[in-house]
């Protein structure tokens, strides 16, 4: 029984203090079930799967800002906006956040870091992960063309567009102006 408990992941904290974790140089690694993230579930087809993440907390070289670096990986099921069929969407998003107290401080963050404005303390860890995933979602998720059921329809539409009836009007317009 003792070996089993050492192999299990430690329970994730519900809330975190990013500045305290940055001072300690802490790392949080874990996973959430997709079903635990209600706002993300609203934009997905179903709530199956897991999200894994690793967040490393530290300070910038000038010791001016607390920084969060890491990655989030998820396999999500959503609807293809081209063929309206279910598709798996693999998300791998890097995380580069700088902890600031207001929008004015955001300009002083190192290049490549997005501001994490701490207006509510402590920060919900699951909400932080969920926000990053929602931002990483494509505006319009679609299969690759070779895997999409709508590819044949698109090819037909493109072929029809080449025989555009308005081309005749374009030729008439040119003849009219040559008078």
Fold topology:
Blueprint: H1 2-7, E1 15-16, H2 18-24, E2 27-33, H3 38-41, E3 50-59, E4 66-79, E5 86-100, E6 114-117, E7 123-124, H4 125-136, H5 151-162, H6 167-177
Parallel strand pairs: 5-6
Antiparallel strand pairs: 1-7, 2-3, 3-4, 4-5
Report on the architecture of this protein.
- With 179 residues, this protein is an alpha+beta fold.
- The protein has one domain (2-148).
- Helices cover 29% and strands 30% of the residues.
- The strands form 2 sheets. It has a 5-stranded mixed β-sheet with strand order 2-3-4-5-6.
- It starts with a helix and ends with a helix.
Level of helix content? 25-40%
Q: What's the overall average pLDDT, rounded?
A: 83
Q: Tell the overall outline.
A: elongated
Largest sheet features:
5 strands, mixed
- Number of helical segments? 6
* Strand content range: 25-35%
Unreliable spans are 1-7
For the termini, the CA-CA separation is: 95 Å
Structural class category:
alpha+beta
Order of SSEs, N→C? HEHEHEEEEEHHH
Count the E strands.
7
Radius of gyration: 24 Å
